[in-house]
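Lecture notes, unit on protein representations.

Consider one protein chain, 498 amino acids long.
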Amino acid sequence: MPAAPRLAQALALVASLSLALAAVCAFGWWRAAHTGRLALDALGPEERQRLLEEMTAASPGVFAPATFEPAIGYTLRRGRITAWGDTFEANEIGYRTVSLEGKKPAGTLRVLFAGDSWTFGMGVREADAFPHRFEELAQQLGAGRGQRVQAVNLGMPGYNTANQIAALDFFWERVRPDAVVLCPTSNDADSSAHVLANGSLTRQGVERDAFGAGHSIVFRTRLVDSFLFRSRWRANFNAIRNLEERLRSRGVPLFLFFTATWDEAFAHALVRQAGLTSPYVVTPRELATLRWRNREPWGHGNAAAHHLYAPMVYAQVAEAFGWPAAPAPSVPQAKTPVWHPERGLDRGMADGWISEAEHLLAAATKNIAERYVPAPGNEPACTGPMDCATGLSGRATSLLVRRRPGASRLRVTLRRLPRAPSLGPLPVHIAIPSPAGEVTATTTLTAEGPAERNIELPLPPDVAPGTALDIILRAPRAVSSPRSTAPRSFFIVSIEQT
């Protein structure tokens, strides 16, 4: 089997994670593409070693925990690094960008870029990432009016909006930017990761994420109409609005560059509903797919795509600072408008975006089943750390089921782990959050008696039929086994609506 498909299949075996596999699963960029399964026990020694090498290349031990500011999560270790197809120097604050030692040079106009692996430039050289290409374009066109335009790239693989804003705030005095470009991506509602002892990342052991969840949450569909999905995006854009206000008080303009595979109407709706006023550009999905993506295992924008992204960002900044316009792009999709919410967009247009976004959410939610039964291919239902194909869960996890019309109760069937008497008695708490609060229930798995337990709880009346229910399961303990470093606590046998 070719290396990339083999790696893709292995990544879905959450329940049998090795340390390296746990690290690889930390990143949102694996989420959409890797949904196959692989029997690791069937691989020979050489195949296992090769697979481990592939995983380590994808999530190398190059990260350092940001213990000086936990909200940042992590940076790169300082010094020379070879990772993701490039060899580069991580600067003194742990990013693949220019040195920030000493004072900002006189006559320098700094533009700070904050984002994730797309802004970092996963799979391309530092010189080809769009922040650096933006700087080159500005110099070529004589922008800056006598000042040198310098890009500072705080993009980091695995960051979400909370990490990005925390890094921007913490390193503000070090960077002293004259403009900020924030680059949201369509998986920024996912939890961030933390650093293992070997310098790789993992989602295992996340006790509380930036959104208040008690475990790591990853939405394996780009869109879904659920309470948690909406509330996490609302939190992201409230944070962006607060950032906008802080920057306005400092006289520093904010620009938004929606990178990666956004549904444009959803991006417009988020801006409108949050009341943002900063100009923004939404990258056309075509420019983040197919021939514009680099090779596996990176799966991000390639060098050609980054050369198109740079003029899109430049157009926003040039308009605000009165710089020369960039030449018209040769690719039709790259002729992307700069939107200006503060100029009073047509009410009908804005309402149309919100309506279209609602339609997109509803359509995406139809792909979520009304019941959960463990089986290969069920990954879109599982938002928490678990093996969706077997129902094996750690100490805490969460799932999605689409609310069935006419249903009033939820029945959850759990099974204890075999040969794990130290877990019993194990109370398992189940919650369904909604705008009105939580509906909760608890059952206990015991070492003796029936292996399976059923528990029923009422469905929240304010979660409409056709939308998705967020079902959260928590237990106080978990165990590991010699075959796995992933914690295990119970099996989810089924989730039914009655």
